[in-house]
């Protein structure tokens, strides 16, 4: 059985479980072969799923919720990444000039989005923290940046963008290579307290209801593969995970090991949806969608398909 | 039917009715089946011709659109003046392409010098690009990435690199998404390259179905190929069109129609012929009983008169005339015998 999935990346820590699947043979164990297609952002991954290019997508749940507003086929099948480790990075050349979010008024901000019809999770995060920081949509210019180390770092280094929302471990690497500095880290406990819903479900396995009806076996197999991979990760050390991923660069290993140790609950261990986290995701989504009438009445439970992973409090 | 000719009229009539019904039923079924086949074949021909015309037009439209987009894209790149290919200019081009996002028709591109050496590559989807071979003066070709099972249309144009020409190679993926976008309801598409399906309007799931559809090409006229013929190339891909439109009349509907016709035939036969015929046969049978009674008792008694009255039934037809004649004859015989 051939299974395909679109994932933003490569290299984003949030989506490492998918890169690990074939390395530990979780797909082969289930009689499947997983093909991972990397895309420049969550919006692209959703497009790949909705236009039949892939069977599944792994994106932030808020991004899938945004797509679900327009397309009722979108469903979430498993929780993969529990912790949103988004970091607002400002290019090094602006150090001293930009000290708070309000200083970013009129600047060029990088987004992973490329569509007006739906918003990626990072765009929702950015709009929410900017609005709270007194910088409403329209008071800054947006530029598309790909979700890859090469494109994000290049856009900051050349001054094509002044700030962007980066994922780990790229954010740490940008600081180490003095490309950009951190203005706000969503993983910090204090930041999480200041932003309602900041503990939203970061990465979820997304599928389509119409496909599930005709390919139930494939969907069930994929969920089993994900559960097996998450369980394997929870039982192995960061070093063992990186060995399997064949990441041997000392700098990269150091960054990722520190990240795994700093945020031990980053990845789900069983794929189960947490009712509390779903509520928090709903709060975050509605809060980030100010002015979007259809988002107000949106209920997250309408798109959760937890038959194979189950729920927890 | 001649074997029943010595039976009673009632039995003969019953058998004749039964065989008439069988013959009618058989003819109606044969005719119904022939019409059913004809209607469905005509409808299929109509849909098939429509789909062929539609996809020939779609292919031409897509090629025109991609050709225009490729030309405009090249002009934009040249006008941005960052094609001298110093390190700084390459960064500028990379930034420019990144900021375009997925807005162009070509998510991947390559710039080669005239000797064919690659000097710049951009891949929106982090794909590695396959090698492409062009014939002299060829401006578009197909290339298949066997590792990823992906087919690309590659458009090549001369591009001004500041002080010398180079080649701009634009890659358009012929993927599931493209076929999903151009398919319409009740039509499934798959793209075939070297007798293998490489994309389907139904995604990965459609690839295995496409192989089954291919078996239907020879025996089923609802499955057929249209060649992607616009690009000048030794090999061209083909689109397999599988019409899944329901036939105007299916077998279930045909069975219902035939049953209804047979029931109507039965009801109309009974109400027009059956009831009338049965009453007249009863009159003939009453006449026969009157005659037998008369032969037995040699008298026109109450039983005979009653049977003759049933046979007459106060009607003015040939049977009544025979009844009146028979009664007169009986009375003569009785009188003569006295």
Characterize the structure shown:
The complex is a heterodimer of chains A (313) and B (338). Chain A contains 14 helices and twelve strands. Chain A is an alpha/beta fold. A five-stranded mixed sheet of chain A has the order 2-1-3-10-4, sandwiched between helices. A five-stranded mixed sheet of chain A has the order 7-6-8-5-9, sandwiched between helices. In chain A, strands 11-12 form a two-stranded parallel sheet. In chain A, α5 links the parallel β6 and β7. The longest helix of chain A is centred in the last third of the chain and has 20 residues. Chain A starts with a strand and ends with a strand. A five-stranded antiparallel sheet of chain B has the order 2-1-5-4-3. A four-stranded antiparallel sheet of chain B has the order 7-6-9-8, with helices on both faces. Chain B is of the alpha+beta class and 338 residues long. In chain B, α5 packs parallel to α7. In chain B, β6 and β7 form a beta hairpin. At the A-B interface, β1, β2, α3 and α6 of A face α2, α3 and α4 of B.
Quick one: biggest sheet of chain A? 5 strands, mixed
Q: Judging from the principal axes of the Cα atoms, what is the shape of chain A?
A: globular
- Strand proportion of chain B, as a percent range, falls in 15-25%
Largest sheet of chain B: 5 strands, antiparallel
Mean pLDDT of chain A, to the nearest integer, reads: 90
Largest chain-chain contact? A-B, 33 and 26 residues
State the separation between the terminal residues of chain B, measured CA to CA: 46 Å
Tag the structure with descriptive keywords.
heterodimer, A: 313 residues, alpha/beta, five-stranded mixed sheet, 14 helices, 19% strand, globular, B: 338 residues, alpha+beta, five-stranded antiparallel sheet, four-stranded antiparallel sheet, 7 helices, rod-shaped
């Amino acid at each position: 059985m051939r299974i395909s999935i679109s994932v933003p990346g490569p290299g984003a820590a949030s989506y490492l479980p998918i890169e690990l699947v074939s390395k530990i043979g979780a797909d082969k164990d289930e009689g499947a072969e997983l093909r991972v297609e990397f895309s420049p952002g969550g919006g692209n991954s959703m497009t790949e799923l909705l236009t039949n290019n892939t069977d599944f997508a792994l994106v932030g749940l808020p991004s899938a919720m945004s797509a679900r507003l327009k397309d009722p086929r979108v469903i979430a099948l498993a929780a993969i990444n529990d912790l949103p480790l988004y970091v607002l990075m400002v290019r090094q050349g602006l150090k001293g000039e930009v000290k708070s979010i309000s200083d970013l008024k009129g600047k060029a901000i990088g987004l992973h989005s490329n569509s007006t019809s739906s918003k990626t999770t990072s765009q929702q995060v950015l709009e929410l923290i900017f609005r709270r920081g007194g910088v409403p949509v329209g008071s800054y210019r947006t530029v598309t940046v790909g979700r890859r180390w090469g494109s994000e770092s290049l856009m900051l280094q050349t001054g094509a963008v002044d700030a962007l929302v980066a994922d780990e471990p790229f954010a740490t690497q940008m600081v180490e290579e003095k490309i950009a500095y951190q203005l706000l880290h969503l993983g910090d406990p204090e930041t999480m307290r200041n932003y309602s819903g900041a503990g939203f479900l970061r990465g979820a396995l997304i599928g389509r209801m119409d496909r599930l009806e005709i390919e139930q076996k494939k969907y069930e197999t994929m969920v089993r593969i994900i559960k097996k991979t998450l369980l394997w990760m929870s039982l192995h050390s960061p070093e063992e995970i990186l060995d399997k991923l064949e990441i041997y660069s000392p700098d990269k290993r150091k960054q990722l090991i520190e990240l795994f140790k700093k945020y031990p609950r980053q990845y789900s261990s069983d794929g189960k949806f947490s009712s509390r986290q779903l509520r928090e995701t709903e709060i975050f989504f509605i809060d980030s969608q100010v002015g979007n009438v259809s988002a107000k009445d949106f209920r997250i439970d309408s798109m959760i398909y937890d038959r194979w992973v189950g729920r927890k409090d | 039917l001649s074997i029943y000719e010595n039976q009673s009229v009632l039995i003969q009539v019953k058998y004749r009715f039964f065989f008439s019904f069988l013959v009618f039923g058989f003819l109606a079924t044969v005719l119904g089946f022939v019409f059913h086949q004809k209607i469905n074949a005509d409808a299929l021909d109509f849909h098939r011709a429509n789909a062929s015309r539609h996809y020939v037009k779609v292919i031409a439209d897509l090629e025109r659109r991609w050709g225009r987009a490729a030309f405009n894209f090249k002009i934009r790149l040249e006008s941005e003046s960052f094609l001298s290919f110093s390190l700084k200019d390459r960064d500028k081009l990379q930034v420019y392409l990144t900021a375009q996002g997925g807005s162009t028709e070509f998510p991947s591109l390559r710039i080669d010098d005239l000797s064919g050496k690659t000097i710049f590559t951009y891949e929106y989807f982090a794909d590695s690009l396959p090698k492409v071979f062009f014939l002299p003066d060829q401006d578009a070709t197909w290339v298949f990435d066997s590792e990823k099972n992906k087919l690309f249309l590659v458009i090549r144009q001369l591009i001004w690199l500041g002080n010398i020409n180079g080649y701009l190679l634009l890659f358009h993926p012929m993927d599931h998404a493209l076929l999903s976008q151009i398919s319409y309801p009740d039509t499934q598409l798959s793209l075939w390259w070297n007798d293998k399906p490489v994309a389907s309007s139904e995604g990965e799931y459609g690839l295995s179905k496409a192989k089954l559809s291919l078996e239907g090409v020879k025996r089923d006229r609802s499955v057929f190929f249209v060649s992607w013929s616009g690009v000048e190339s030794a090999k061209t891909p083909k689109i397999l069109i599988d019409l899944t439109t329901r036939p105007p009349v299916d077998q279930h509907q045909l069975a219902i129609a035939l049953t209804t016709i047979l029931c109507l035939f039965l009801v109309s036969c009974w109400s027009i012929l059956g009831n009338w015929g049965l009453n007249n046969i009863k009159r003939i049978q009453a006449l026969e009983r009157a005659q037998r009674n008369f032969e037995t008792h040699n008298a026109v008694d109450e039983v005979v008169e009653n049977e003759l009255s049933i046979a007459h039934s106060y009607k003015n037809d040939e049977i009544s005339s025979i009844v009146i004649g028979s009664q007169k004859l009986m009375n003569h015989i009785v009188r003569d015998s006295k």
